[in-house]
Amino acid sequence: MPDTIAITGATGFVGAAVARRLAAAGHGIQALVRPASVHRQPSDISARWVVGDLDNADSLQELVTGVVAVVHCAGAVRGATREQFNRVNADGLEHLLRAALNQPRNPRFLLISSLSAREPEISYYAASKRRGEALLTAESDRLAWTVYRPCAVYGPGDREIMPLFKWMAKGIAPVLGSGTGRFSLIFVEDLANAVADWLEHDRCPSEIYELHDGHPGGYTWQDVIDTFQHLRRKAVLRLKIPLMVVKLLAVVNLLAARTIGYAPMLTPGKVGELSHPDWVSDNTPLNRATGWSPRVSLPEGLKLTLGWNAF
Ligand SMILES: NC(=O)c1ccc[n+]([C@@H]2O[C@H](COP(=O)([O-])OP(=O)(O)OC[C@H]3O[C@@H](n4cnc5c(N)ncnc54)[C@H](OP(=O)(O)O)[C@@H]3O)[C@@H](O)[C@H]2O)c1
Hints:
The chain has 311 residues and is α/β, with parallel strands linked by helices. 42% of the residues lie in helices and 17% in strands. It is built from 11 helices and 13 strands. The protein has a 7-stranded parallel sheet with strand order 3-2-1-4-5-6-11, sandwiched between helices. Strand 4 (69-72), helix 3 (82-101) and strand 5 form a beta-alpha-beta unit. It is globular, with a radius of gyration of 19 Å. The model has no long low-confidence stretch (mean pLDDT 96). It binds NADP nicotinamide-adenine-dinucleotide phosphate (NAP). NADP nicotinamide-adenine-dinucleotide phosphate (NAP) binds at residues 8-9, 11-15, 32, 34, 37, 40, 53-54, 73-77, 88, 92, 112, 114, 150, 152-153, 160.
């Protein structure tokens, strides 16, 4: 009989790719869906959907009943206050953890954290992801845990980097400030494969692992622009956006979000993340632990993300 896995966040970009990959590998899937997002359940994923959210103990208990592993992809990636991020990324994780620890046999637990947790002082988001990690890693005596810290993830269904990539495919590359920072990237299906490989390695050490697309040392924005130029066989115009302008816009957006009540993406914290000089990751420990290695290079991933006709 195939193993059953509990997944959160399967209506989102990363979680849907993970659920799709695990279902394709023959695992049974129990996926959490918020009442307001039932219409966003991906129709191509065969799963038993449990309606509820990370605040609801009963639905979390139902979600983890009988599963061998929990893959926690749900997370708040936008927000105006520290509390909004902590409520999901720390408190929500704690509720899910409690449900898992209530099981007669504790399931293994994989947390999809973020590379930003390396620098928790940089933003509310980063701090909340680090808090979530600390809550999980404190349970080493009671359950086998693993943390993945993905760098920037891109692929079909992404809403964060996609607009920028679409501009670049059209020949315009807005670059924040000097654009000299280095960062790693990963195609979403490679991340989903890393989750599948973790499931197959039930002795994977309880550690925090970074992941990237196999391009050691990461990229600068000029490297990404060069890739687009190569794919387009035409020049891409680099448009420098002054950091001060974006910082100002971020402050205005944050104030508007707090006044009107929406979850903003562009905030001073996000600008801090975007302008950080070093978001380069290292695949070596994860490769040693599970044998996983990425398969999709940036040019291939861009074609899969934007469609071959985009170039
Ligand atoms: N995308 C990246 O580049 C990236 C990089 C590093 C780490 N990550 C991490 O990967 C995870 C997924 O990110 P994503 O890009 O896929 O974001 P996303 O598309 O916004 O998806 C977030 C998911 O979390 C769910 N969720 C949010 N709050 C919830 C709550 N209170 N209760 C239950 N479910 C809740 C959402 O459900 P609804 O559909 O109901 O909103 C959605 O399914 C996050 O933890 C993020 O920190 C992402």
